Amino acid sequence: MRLIAFAAALAAAAPLNAAPQGSPAPQASSATATTAGLTPATTSQQTVPPPPAGPVLPPPPKTAVLPAAPPPQAQASFTRVIPDSSLEQPGERGRAAHTNHMFLAKPEASSSGPSGETPGSLACIYKTVSVSFPGCSKKDATLVPTGGSGIIAIVDAFDYPTAESDLNVFSAKFGLPQCTTANGCFKKVYAGGAPPRQNCGWAQESALDIQWAHAMAPGAKIVLVLANSNSFADLLAAVDVANGLIAASGAPGQVSMSWGGSEFAGEVGYDGHFVSSGVVYFAASGDTGGKQIWPGESPNVVSAGGTAVLRDSAGNFLNEVAWTGSGGGPSQYEYRPPYQDGIANIVGIKRGAPDFSFDADPNTGVSVYTGFRCQGATGWLVFGGTSVASPALAGIVNLAGSHYASTAQQLAAIYGGLPPSPNYSYNFRDITSGTAGTFKAGPNWDFVTGVGSNQRLSGK
């Protein structure tokens, strides 16, 4: 959920939420989508209450500049910049989502290439490729996954004009297949029927999401569904559009949502947006350690938590620990679903999050390319936050190829892999070290990393 962009450079800052001069104010979106090569979709969705209305944009940007947290490996001095769009504004609870991203900025010229974790290095660590490289170093582990099918729909807000070109700069750099509108791999869909205004923070979110879904499942089609605004009304309408597109394709798929907001009374009434046959939903668990967010606490999503990847001074993989910013805990409003009955002694009567985790610490974050300038930062950046985990885990599940008919079935398979299953340590990496808020990582399932992180493609 909080995507933390670690910028290789910072020039003069531009306001994060500024739209192009003369941009029209976003309107409440309909469920009619337009895209080149795609006919408008009609969704088939169970009856749910209309989504809550909410503000379209936060107030004018204010930034908080804080000292950067020390990384596990020594790096140059950085500044952590928290733009206004990353803060939940007064009155937004239950009405609008926020990106919650920050970036670590370095006051010097932009680097010429990526410096974060790569598709190859994390495929090595998470064992989604057939050949393992000792140490899984970013330099040597260059083999990327092959395979994937169907659609991974990424739901975000506001327009991202450089989405396709940025995705293919990323793909070319890491040896991934090109993913274009022309070859049928990529689609950009406007949920409201026309391009919304632009917002650089949400453009960064979209860049991260489409690139890391493609990195983990290169054979899947990537559909970026853009809501008119960050209101829950518009974002949930965009989810409905994504549901319709997957249904119309005749193939199973995944929907990833790297956004959210504080839990609110009445959220249960909107969980039906995350129920569509053949679709498994993923949502970030949040980036405030031990805090619960929605839809990350919905029982109808795979809640994606965060870890940190530890390497030695030579860049070799050592271990994986809990990330201090990983959101989670018992929901305030959602009750325990059947797939969590086996951990009732931990979660009690409420739904517990997260379910499954992936590298999310910005200090061990992932490489992303964006040509859309945001507060002076452009080019190769390093991102962290559970915004990384949601699309990446959607990609891993797609790559695994089980294609469960619902999120409940997908999570029943994941939770069925916990001990006493003899395959737990083969299919998952148990994260037993680290804390987030008041919660501690421990054996098997916990409120910081869920069942742990991925190993191999079985059990998914």
Describe it.
The protein has helices at residues 119-125, 163-174, 200-216, 232-249, 344-347, 386-400, 407-415, 424-427, and strands at residues 4-7, 64-67, 79-82, 102-105, 151-157, 186-190, 221-227, 253-257, 261-262, 279-284, 293-294, 302-311, 317-322, 329-335, 350-353, 356-359, 366-374, 377-384, 428-429, 435-436, 439-440, 453-454. The chain has 460 residues and is α/β, with parallel strands linked by helices. It has a domain at 145-360 and 384-454: 3-Layer(aba) Sandwich (Rossmann fold). The two termini are 22 Å apart. The relative contact order is 0.19. Mean pLDDT is 85; it is low at 1-48 and 54-77.
Secondary structure elements and their pairing?
Elements: E1 4-7, E2 64-67, E3 79-82, E4 102-105, H1 119-125, E5 151-157, H2 163-174, E6 186-190, H3 200-216, E7 221-227, H4 232-249, E8 253-257, E9 261-262, E10 279-284, E11 293-294, E12 302-311, E13 317-322, E14 329-335, H5 344-347, E15 350-353, E16 356-359, E17 366-374, E18 377-384, H6 386-400, H7 407-415, H8 424-427, E19 428-429, E20 435-436, E21 439-440, E22 453-454
Parallel strand pairs: 1-4, 5-7, 5-8, 6-7, 8-10, 10-12, 12-16
Antiparallel strand pairs: 1-18, 2-3, 3-4, 9-11, 12-13, 14-15, 17-18, 19-22, 20-21
Helix pairs in contact: 2-3, 3-6
Task: Quickly describe the structure.
With 460 residues, the chain is of the alpha/beta class. The chain has helices at residues 119-125, 163-174, 200-216, 232-249, 344-347, 386-400, 407-415, 424-427; strands at residues 4-7, 64-67, 79-82, 102-105, 151-157, 186-190, 221-227, 253-257, 261-262, 279-284, 293-294, 302-311, 317-322, 329-335, 350-353, 356-359, 366-374, 377-384, 428-429, 435-436, 439-440, 453-454.
